[in-house]
UniProtKB/TrEMBL annotation:
This is Uncharacterized protein. Keywords: Membrane, Transmembrane, Transmembrane helix. It comes from the Bacteria. The chain crosses the membrane at residues 12-30.
Length: 122
């Protein structure tokens, strides 16, 4: 009888130890892995160089949203040159941002315009 009690106690202790290791091991593995994010391929925004420095000084850049497509224009006096366009999904952006883009957002430098464009394209 003492052998049975000792045997059952040993089996129970082994079972509890195994279950403890199983649960804590699973928890440790689950929390030790770095959280991965989904890889999304982003279309690179091509860099555009100005044709001449004199035109660049008086030029400004404008980002406009028309028919779910973003257009980047270079405006020089009365001239307007389309530099880049890219379709976007409007439903993922705040309405205020889209309304502002529909009216056109002006920039002094191409770098600033491309920075905002990348926020909407990537």
């Amino acid at each position: 009888m003492k052998k049975d009690i000792a045997r059952n106690t040993l089996i129970t202790a082994a079972y509890v130890s195994m279950m403890t290791l199983f649960f804590f091991g699973g928890y440790a593995l689950g929390t030790s892995r770095a959280k991965t994010t989904a890889a999304v391929s982003a279309t690179p925004v091509p860099a555009v160089r100005a044709a001449s420095t004199s035109a660049q000084e008086s030029a400004h850049y404008e980002l406009v949203l028309e028919n779910s497509e973003l257009f980047l224009y270079k405006r020089t006096g009365t001239d307007s040159e389309l530099l880049y366009s890219h379709p976007i999904t409007e439903s993922v952006f705040p309405r205020e941002d889209l309304d502002e883009l529909r009216g056109g957002v002006s920039f002094d430098t191409l770098k600033d315009a491309q920075s905002l464009l990348e926020n909407f394209v990537s």
